[in-house]
Structure formats: C-alpha cells, structure tokens
Amino acid sequence: MAKKRDRFVEVYSQGLTNVEKIIVDTQTGVNYLLAASTLTTGCGMSILVDADGKPIVTPID
Asked: φ, ψ for residue 17 (rounded to 5)?
C-alpha cells in the first residue's frame, strides 16, 4: 500500500515566542505564512505573494 503524503508540509520555521512558519500545500504548491505569538495567544495565516501580488507557488513533483 502506498504511503499517503501529507497535504500541508512545513518548509521553514523561526522563533520561539513569536513564531513564523512557511507551509506549502503539496497538491497546489501554494505557499502560506503562519504567524503565532504565545504572548498574545493569537495566530494568523496568509497566502505568500510576490511583488506583483501573485501567489508564490512551489513546483510539485
């Protein structure tokens, strides 16, 4: 049986209290930024875009 690949994978992470992560959708290649803060117990997620406002897409094999 083939192993099922995760839909979202974390490709970058920084920070301990204020955390920023880049997450890639393995089906579409679209990159997302996830930002979270334990000081304010908040988080947010947004599509990463280039200088022209187009989504950043990672090529999928």
From this structure: -90, -50
